[in-house]
Amino acid sequence: MLPLSLLKTAQRHAVLVELKNGETYNGYLQQCDTWMNLHLSEVICTSKDGQRFFKMPEVYIRGNTIKYISVPEERSGQQVAVGAAAGAAGRSAAAARQLAGQQEEAAVGGARAGEVRLDCIGIAVGSDWQAD
Amino acid sequence: MLQEVPLPGTALAEELDQRLLIVLRDGRKLLGVLRSFDQFANLVVEGAVERIIVGEQYGDIPLGLQVIRGENVVLLGRVDEGKDAPEGLTQVSPAAIKEALRGEKELNKLKGTLRARMDFLDLE
């Protein structure tokens, strides 16, 4: 799964965003777009030195200020692995050569399973998402 | 041998599902499995761990699943699965390594000018 797609599936989950200036923002991801601009809610901002904390109801972060985004692993882990198998098979000839024949078939099947799981995520969001 | 050199656009594809060491512009070293990337070299890294090395000690801080914005990456490369622990270094807990890092930063503040000349890097 592409990085920005993974971000889209993380909507309404808690994320940690670190900016280039070292500040970290913990909050629920409401929206993201193709430029990685983020809209977060219920945000706690931690200063670079880790000493000062600010709580904000809403925050808009411009994509080009982001260093990285941490995403909860529980749900996305499965989708990421499936997406990687499909991506590896489809993306480069070199990677495809290395993959055994049966792995490619599994990846194609996996891609379909991945799509199904994305639909499930859409339904499951909004209810409790404790790890299974 | 020459025809094995990958093109810049597809070079990252060969690193998929590999355990990598990624160095960021702020000097951080992350280890993790590369799961996907895009045309900007934004990366998805699973099981990411930040390795902090202070003197003879190192500590791993678990970070989970990460989306790294491509422009912050300096370089990345594969690490041997078997040889994960660096030789000659002892592993300590995350809390201990953070203390050691704080101590080193204080020391560097005293050293002053030499680090100030390195300000073309994005180090803290």
UniProtKB/TrEMBL annotation, chain A:
Transmembrane segments: none
Keyword DNA damage included in the entry's annotation: no
Annotated localization: Nucleus
GO BP of this protein: mRNA splicing, via spliceosome; nuclear-transcribed mRNA catabolic process
First-listed, main subcellular location of the protein, grouped into a coarse class: nucleus
Domain of life per record: Eukaryota
GO cellular component: spliceosomal complex
Sm domain mapped to chain residues: 2-75
Molecular-function GO terms, alphabetical: RNA binding
Keywords: mRNA processing, mRNA splicing, Nucleus, Ribonucleoprotein, RNA-binding, Spliceosome
One Pfam family cited in the UniProt record for this chain: LSM
Family: Belongs to the snRNP Sm proteins family.
Subunit structure and binding partners: LSm subunits form a heteromer with a doughnut shape.
Function: Binds specifically to the 3'-terminal U-tract of U6 snRNA.
Protein name: U6 snRNA-associated Sm-like protein LSm4
Gene name of this polypeptide: LSM4
UniProtKB/TrEMBL annotation, chain B:
Gene: LSM1
GO cellular-component term (any): Lsm1-7-Pat1 complex
MF annotations from Gene Ontology: mRNA binding
Biological process, per Gene Ontology: cold acclimation; deadenylation-dependent decapping of nuclear-transcribed mRNA; hyperosmotic salinity response; mRNA processing
Protein family per UniProt: Belongs to the snRNP Sm proteins family.
Annotated organism of origin: Gonium pectorale
UniProt keywords, alphabetically: Cytoplasm, mRNA processing, Ribonucleoprotein, RNA-binding
Protein name: U6 snRNA-associated Sm-like protein LSm1
Subcellular location: Cytoplasm; Cytoplasm, P-body
Protein's job: Component of the cytoplasmic LSM1-LSM7 complex which is involved in mRNA degradation by promoting decapping and leading to accurate 5'-3' mRNA decay. LSM1A and LSM1B are essential for the formation of the cytoplasmic LSM1-LSM7 complex which regulates developmental gene expression by the decapping of specific development-related transcripts. Required for P-body formation during heat stress.
Family matches, as Pfam families: LSM (PF01423)
Gene3D superfamilies for this protein: 2.30.30.100
Domain Sm per the UniProt entry, residue ranges: 7-82
InterPro entries in UniProt: Lsm1, LSM_dom_sf, PTHR15588, Sm, Sm_dom_euk/arc
